[in-house]
Specification:
Elements lengths: L8 H13 L4 H13 L1 H17 L9 H17 L4
Helix pairs in contact: 1-2, 1-3, 2-3
The chain binds zinc ion.
Length: about 90
């Protein structure tokens, strides 16, 4: 405790769904946002995922480009392979 360790890209992607759900602890949320501010790659992933979730929830009624959709499905599959634990 005490040291503020930065998220790696891998950790960020693991926490991204919870972050977008608003389910992340405030401390983790701050660290995640700090990483996003410095890492364009993760920012793009976050932004794309956020938009896609909005589409799923019906907030943004426009279709996603196929390549974005397939990349997202891959990401979601990776995530669901990690679900089921606890
Ligand atoms: Zn990153």
């Amino acid at each position: 405790m005490g040291t503020t360790r930065q998220f790696t890209c891998k950790e960020l992607l693991q926490e991204l769904a919870d972050y977008l759900d608003g389910a992340l602890e405030p401390e983790d949320r701050t660290r995640l946002e700090a990483h996003l501010a410095k890492c364009p790659n993760c920012w793009v992933v976050c932004d794309t995922t956020k938009k896609t979730i909005e589409v799923y929830k019906g907030l943004a009624p426009y279709p996603l480009p196929e390549d974005v959709k397939s990349r997202l499905m891959m990401a979601l599959q990776k995530r669901s392979s990690r679900a089921g634990q606890g």
